[in-house]
Specification:
The chain is elongated, with a radius of gyration of 17 Å. The chain is mainly alpha-helical.
Length: 118
């Protein structure tokens, strides 16, 4: 049985309990994760596409940070909206511009640099 079909069965069986507990939206969100992947999937895709197009590690991390910041500031759940924006390194599938005048992307580099060897 395909996973998506199994998940539909589980959701159907759990719907009454999820309604009673007030978490039906969270349970239904599992379908979006299966269909679109998670925010982590998008972050890795952005990073690897940037590196494949010649970005240095720091630039690729900035592209990931930019996408996260934009998704957050727009009030969107990154796991629900994996629509990636155009960048110099990512073409049609990427996030924002690497050098923002407000310094937002650059400010996060020290925080992200501890990620390890992506």
């Amino acid at each position: 049985m395909p996973f998506a079909q199994w998940l539909d069965q589980v959701i159907e069986e759990a719907t009454a309990d999820a309604v009673a507990l007030g978490c039906l939206n969270e349970v239904l969100h599992c379908r979006a994760i299966v269909a679109n992947g998670t925010s982590a999937d998008a972050q890795l895709a952005i990073y690897h596409r940037a590196r494949d197009k010649g970005a240095e590690r720091e630039e690729a991390l900035m592209a990931v940070n930019e996408w996260l910041a934009e998704a957050t500031l727009e009030g969107d759940d990154p796991e629900q909206k994996l629509q990636l924006r155009k960048t110099p390194y990512l073409g049609a599938a990427g996030a924002g511009v690497f050098d923002r005048p407000d310094g937002l992307a650059r400010a996060a580099i020290p925080m992200l640099s501890g990620i390890g060897s992506l």
